[in-house]
Design brief:
By secondary structure, this protein is an alpha+beta fold. It contains 13 helices and 13 strands.
């Protein structure tokens, strides 16, 4: 190769490297208004938070404020239930249970109290009809009494039935915790260890756990702790049709079930303000749907976690903060969504 050709190749390589360096900066330009919005809302959002946005392959936006980093462990609260629903579907994929099994098949004590018609599906969609504890504080204090899920779920059995199973939605911790106990019975493993083995380890979620700090019963409905980096792996798996690094974590049939709307034409009770007007699928809310399938799934929680998967536009969203949500944060999320959606073309009608 001649000297001139060598110089030209070097120039071309330098230009290519420069353009490659500029790519992330260009990608960030599309989200400048989003960054500006979050800077303006820092006080309302608690000053310590992180926002991640990803497509099927990679993270396209990551911004950290204050002490919150991608690997900072934080409570997931209600977003834990989405993990539990996925775990149930994994065992359904293996033929170890069916969503339409009656819970009395695994928990005979419920037959004793006349709760013969509750199914696992009802448990994952808040349709058990069982009367909830009165008030959030009562529920939190009540949960601390139990050393095991077995004890807690046996206590639920004695509660009154308010409505026939499957006829009315009532948001609570009971159904998901009943489902969690059934997983223990089917697998013969503690719920937190099963979640680690079947879901967290395959997804590389090394800092995610349902194990409690005080040794009390794990809480499948709201007791997981995780990081933004870990939970994004879960969301991307959902966006990728149940696959992670070429491994099928959830089957196509399971993904269809996970997105199926369960609350059609039902009375909606005890709905959190952040989810007002949303339908419900399995373990997650559906703010947008097409027919009986959710096109967006989300699981906002009082802990400050707000994850979402947008199937139409092909992106995942995760907002995580150390602060407890206040009434204004739901409106901020809606403002964020209006800025994010246009950056991704829609594949839906």
């Amino acid at each position: 190769m001649s000297y001139n050709n060598s110089i030209n190749c070097l120039k071309a390589s330098t230009v290519a490297l420069f353009l490659l360096f500029l790519q992330p900066l260009h990608a960030q330009k599309d989200f400048l208004d989003l960054t500006r919005l979050l800077d303006e809302k820092k006080a309302a959002l608690g000053n310590d938070f992180i926002l991640l946005i990803g497509n099927a392959d990679t993270t396209v936006y990551q911004k950290e404020w204050g002490s919150m980093k991608a690997k900072t462990v934080a409570p997931l609260a209600a977003a834990s239930g989405w993990l539990t629903a996925a775990l149930v579907l994994q065992l359904a994929d293996e033929g170890k249970l069916s969503l339409d099994d009656k819970i009395t098949k695994y928990l005979p004590v419920y037959e004793k109290y006349g709760k013969n018609y509750i199914t696992i599906r009802h448990c994952l969609s808040h349709l058990t009809g069982i009367q909830d504890s009165k008030g959030k504080l009562t529920r939190l204090m009540e949960r601390k009494k139990f050393a095991t899920l077995d004890e807690q779920v046996a206590d639920f059995a004695a509660k009154e039935i308010e409505t026939n199973p499957g006829t009315a939605f009532s948001y609570s911790n009971m159904g998901l915790n009943i489902a969690g106990r059934i997983l223990e019975i089917v697998s013969r493993k503690r719920f937190d260890l099963l979640a680690k083995q079947k879901l967290f380890n395959p997804l590389g979620m090394r800092q995610t756990t349902f194990t409690t700090l005080d040794g009390s019963a794990p809480d499948p409905s709201g007791g997981a702790r995780s990081t933004a980096a870990d939970y994004m792996a879960f969301l991307k798996m959902l966006l990728n049709g149940g696959k992670h690094n070429g491994q099928q974590i959830l089957s196509e049939a399971a993904m269809t079930e996970l997105r199926a709307i369960q609350s059609t034409n039902l009375t909606m009770n005890a709905v959190p303000k952040a989810a007002t007007g949303y339908a419900y699928a399995l373990g997650a809310w559906a703010p947008e749907k097409e027919g009986n399938q959710a096109t967006v799934l989300t699981s906002p929680s009082l802990s400050g976690t707000w994850p979402a998967v947008n199937y139409c536009r092909g992106y995942t969203f995760l907002f995580l903060t150390k602060e407890v949500l206040n009434d204004g944060k739901h409106e901020v999320y809606e403002e964020m969504k209006k800025l994010i959606d246009p950056q991704f073309s829609s594949a839906c009608k």
